[in-house]
Amino acid sequence: MRKKRKLKSEAGALTRRDFLKGAGVTVSGGLLATGAVTTAQAAAQEGVVGPGPVPITLRINGRVHRLSLEPRITLLDALRDHLNITGSKKVCDRATCGACTMLMDKKPVYACTVLAIEAEGHDITTIESLTENGRLSPVMEAFWKNDAQQCGFCTPGFVMACTAFLEKNPNPTLEQIEKGLGGNLCRCGTYAGIRRAVLEAAKAMKGGQANG
Amino acid sequence: MIPEPFEYHSPQSLEEALRLVTEFGEEGKMMAGGHSLLPMMKLRLASPRHVIDLGRLSELRYIRESDGWIEIGALTTHFQIESSSLLREKCPLLPETAREIGDAQVRNLGTLGGSLAHADPAADWPAAILALDAEIRANSAGGERWIAAQDFFVGLMTTALAPGEILTAVRLPPLPRRAGDTYLKLRQPASGFAVVGVGVRLALNEAAHIERVAIGVTGIGPKAYRAAAVERELLGKPPTARRLAEAAARAADGVQTNSDLFASAEYRKHLASVYVRRALELALERANP
Amino acid sequence: MASCKYDWPAAGQRDAIGKSTDRIDGPAKVSGRAKYTYDINRPGMLFGKMLTCPHAHAKIKSIDVSPALKHPGVKAALVIQDVGSEIQWAGDEIAAVAAVDEATAEDAVRLIRVEYDVLPHLVREENLSKDGDRAKPAGEQKVGDPDKAFADPEAVISEGFYGIPVITHCCLETHGNVVEWRGADSILTHSSTQNVSGIPSQLGAALRAKKINVQDSNIETICQYIGGGFGSKFSIDRWGVVAAELSKQAGGKPVKLMLDRDEDLEVAGARPSYFGHVKVAASKDGTLTAWSSETWGTGGPGPSGVPPVPYILTNIPNIYKKHTSVSTNIGPARAWRAPNHPQACLMTLAALDDLAAKLAMDAMEFLQKNIHLAPSYLVNTYQQELSKAAELSEWSKYWHPRGDKTPGHLKRGLGVSLHTWGGRGHAGSCNVIVRPDGSVTVQSGTQDLGTGTRTVIAVVAASTFGLPVDAIQVEIGDSRYPFDGASGGSTTVGAASAWTRRGSVDALNELFAAVAPSLGVQANQLEARDGRIQVQGNPSKSLSWKDACAKLGAKTIHTVGKNPGPCNLGSVGVGGVQVADVTVDTETGKVKINRLVAVQDCGLIIDKLTAESQVYGGLIMGVCYSLFEEKVMDQTIGRMLNANMEFYKLAGIGDIGGELIVHMMTGPGYDERGVIGLGEPPVISPGAAISNAVANAIGVRVSQLPLTPRRVLAALAKGGIA
Hints:
The structure holds 3 protein chains of 3 kinds. By secondary structure, chain A is α+β, with helices and mostly antiparallel strands. Chain A has helices at 16-22, 29-34, 37-44, 75-82, 138-145, 155-168, 174-180, 191-210, and strands spanning 54-60, 63-69, 101-104, 107-110, 123-125.
C-alpha cells in the first residue's frame, strides 16, 4: 500500500508544491489545513502526501480501517477522534507518561508520538483487543484483583505496557518491573498494587501456558 | 497539541531520501523515530514544510561485524541495540547505554542515527560513541564520508553533518585486550535524559597501567565531549583509587556548563566529577576480571 | 446501649463490610471500556480550543476573533475576556473557537489577534522581603506568654526556616467538558468533575449571567469516570461555560473542550505555598513549652490558605503566630487533597524534629512525650499509632541520632510524622429500588473519583440486604439521580455509606412488611441473611430473596436514603502516623526511599481493599511532592517553566522505594466511631516524614521541599555529616 506513494523518479514529475506554485496560488496555513482533498489525492499518487487529508489504512486489532487524515494526525488521535477507539488515553501528549501505550508489531510504543501515516503497514494492538473474547486478560484480571488502579486513567496504558513486558520477561524481578514499566505514570499512586499485579499476572500467564 | 500542516514523504531507498533532502533543503526535516521531532512540532517550535520519514529505510537497520569492526545502521532502534547478542558479546557498552535511554516505549521507536543527528546535549548515545572512538558515516548525493565521533558534535544540537547529508551508520573499532567499559548516568527524574552521562572505555597494559582511556561525557555542556583533561592525567599511570578520583575532578575542565531547572552549572560540574570517577572505577573493575 | 434502627451491624454480622471487596467498576477500567469525559465522542461533535494570555499581568487593548471565524471548518468563535479586562495570570482564557476537528481548531485559534498592555507582575514569593505591597497580613495570634517562655534560661530552643512550594494537581485527565444543547432550552454536559450534582446550577447561573436563559433543571451533567480530581474539579470552570456558548453559537452541536496538558498545569490546579521561620522551645526533659512562627505563602491572585500551626500539638501553652498572604500572578489556587494540612504538617513536624535533635532525644520518644498537647480525643489514638509505627518500622533498630556515621557516601535515616483530618460525610441522598424480581438498584448523583464510591455503596447495600455484592446495581454519575455533595475533603464515603444504609434499611423494612404475612410473623421479627429473608434465629422459616421480593406483587419498593439523618453512622477526626526510611547519596544528593510505614485510623472500614489503596496512594503522592514536584515560575517572563510532564515530575514505579507498609487501626475503639473519610489524611505526613528522615540521615535539615539533589547538596555544604 506504500507503493502508490512512491515518488516517481522520472524528471518532470510535478510535486504538489510545484503545482501550487505553477498555479500561482498563495498558500496559507489555513488552506493547507483543510486542503482540498482532490489535490492531495492527486498528489499522493506522485508520492507526495498532504498536507491535506490523505487516505490512510490502519490495521488495528486485526481489522482494517480506511481513513482520510492529514499527515500531522497522530496514531493516538486517529484512533480516539476518528475511530472512537478510546481505551488509550491522551495525557502528556509528548511521549512521557505512557497512557497512550499501544503495541506496534507487538512492541509497546507511545501512540501520541507516532503519526498515523507512519503506522501504515504495521500491526496495531490496543487494549480493546485483549477483551475481544469478552473476558479479562490475565494482566487485566491481576490489575483488578490487586486494586492496581484508582481513577483508572493510566490503567489501560499500564496494562498494555505490562502485557508486552511480560511477553519478554516471563519471570520478572522487582527491579525489572520497575525498569520495564518506567515509561508509564500514575497520579493516584497505585504502584504498590501494580507491583503485586505484575507478579501475579506473570504467575497466571505461566500457569495458563502450562495448562496448554 | 497538533503540528502545523506538512507534506509527508517516506522514501523507500537511501537514494530517494538523499534526493528529497537535497530538494527541500531548509524546508525539510528528517524523521527517524520522531521522539525528538514530533514534540517540537506539536509545540510548533519546529514547523517544517516537509517531513522526510526515514522509517521505511530498512536497508539502514542492521548490526553487523566485518574485519573486527562492528557497523550499526542509523535506523537501528535503541531496543535492537539493547537486545543484540552480537553487541552484548563484542561491545557491551552499547547495550548497556541503550538500556539507560528513556523507557521501553521510547527504545522501541527511537533510533541510534536519529538521536546522534539530533545531538541533544543530554542524550545518552553521544557519550558512548565518544568513549568507543566510533566513526559516523554521512551519505550525500556526492558519496559518503566517515566522521570521527570526536569531530561529530559541533555545538548545541549541531553536528558536522553538512546540508544534504544523511547519517547512515556508525562503526566501532574492536575492543582492546584487557579493556573494560561502562556507561553511568544520573537521569533527569522526569524526562529520563542524562543530567550527566559518562561512557568510559579503559584498557590496561601488561604492567596493569592505563594504556588507553576514552571518556565521553554528556549532559554537562552544550555538546557531548571527551574529558581530555582526565584522560591525560591517567594515561600510562597505574589506576589507583586516588588517581582516579583526582583525575575525575577535572571532568568538566574547560567546559561551559549547562544550567537548568534541575541542576545548576555548579552542581553539574560536581556531578561530572562524581560520575566520571564512578564510571572509571567500574570500567577498571571490568578490565581486571 | 440503646440501638438505633440504622446502626451498623455488630462485629461478626457485617457481611462484606470491613472485608476486601474488589472494585465493582474494576473490569470496566482495566479493560479500557470505561468512558471518561475525554473519551466522549458525540454525533457531529466539534472541538473547542482557547487562546490564552501569554503575560502574567496585562490589560487587553484590542481583540479580533474574526480571522478565526473565517477559517474554513470553524463553526463558532467568541471573546472570553474583552477589551479592558485585566488579566492576572499567564494562561488565562481570552478567546475560543469550535471547529470540525482539533487540528482546525488549533490552527484557527492562532489566527485570533490580541494586543495587550503588559503590566508588572510577581510570580515568586519565597523571599518575603521582595514581595512589597503584594504581601498582606493574614492573621496574628498569641496564646499564653511566648516571650517569657523563650526567655527562660532553662529552655532549649530550636529555630529554623522551612518551605513547601506551589505544586499542581496534574490530574491525568485534563479538565474539560463536552457540552451540547438539546433544543433551545436544555443542555447536556459530560464533565470531568468531582461535583456531578453541583454542575447544573453552576452552569445555569453562569449562562443566565450572560443573558442565556436556561433553567438549572434543564441541565444534565454526566460523569461516569473521572481521571483524577484531587480537589481541582469542583467547578464547571470558565471553559465549561465557554463550551456551552460555543455549542449554542454552532446550533447546539456538541463541543468537546478539554484543556491541553500545558494549560492544565498552568491554570487548572495549584496548592498554595507555605514558607516560614519557626522557633520552638522545650524544657530540658523535652516537654514543649513554646511555639513562634512567622509564615507566608501564595494562593495566586486571591488569598493564600492559612495552614493550622502548630499542627496537632495545638495545646502548646505559649504560642505566637503570624501569617502573611502574598498575592501573585501565578494562576488561582485550588483545593489540593487535604488543603493546608501538608503545609502545616511540614512546618510543625520538621521544626519539632529539629528541636528533638537539639535535645538529643529520639524523635519518636519526643512525640510520645508531647502527644498530650494534641486534642484530647486524638491522644489515645496517636499513642497507639506511634507505638505501632515504631514497631512496623523497626524504629529502635534503624533510628540513630542525627547523621549516619556509617563510612561511605550512602547515609540512611528514619523520620516520623503525624496528621489528622475531619472526614465527616457530606449532605446527600440516594434512591434505593427493590423490584419484584429481586433486583436492587441504588442511584445517586454522586461520583467515584477512583476512591471506590460505587463499591462502597454496593457493599453497604449488599450487607444490609444479606446479598452478595454483585447483586447490587449501582447507578451514579448523573445529575438526574438524587442530589449528592461534591467529593472533597474526604466526605464521600461517610455520606454514601450512610445514605445507602438508611435507604436500604427502610427498603428492607418495607420488604419485611410485605413478606411477614406469608411467614406468619410480625415484620420486626424478620432478618435478611445469606440471600434469604428469615425469622430471626430460625433459618428454617425463610424465603429466598427472590421469592420474598415476588411477594411485592406489582409493587416496587422505592426509598430515599439521606445524610445527615437519624443514628450515628459516621463521625469526624482521624489520626495517622507515618515513618519514612531513606538513603541519601551524599555525592549526588539523590534521596532514595527505602520503606514507608503508614498507620491510619478511619473509623469503621467499608471496603478494606480500596481503603488501603487510599493510604498507598497518599504515601506515593506524598513521595511526589516531597522529592519532585514544584510549579517553577520564572520572574522574568512570568510563566511556569515546567508546564509539561517532561519537567513536572511525578513519581514513577521505580521511585517509591522498597516496601510500603500500611496498617489500618480497626476493631474495638475504632469501629464504633462509624465511617470516616480517608482520602486526605494519608497524603499529609509524607513531606515531614521524608524530610525528617533525610535530616536524620545526613545530619542537617534540607529546609525546603521538594528534596531535590541540588537542595540536598546545598544543605550538606552548610553542615551535616559529609
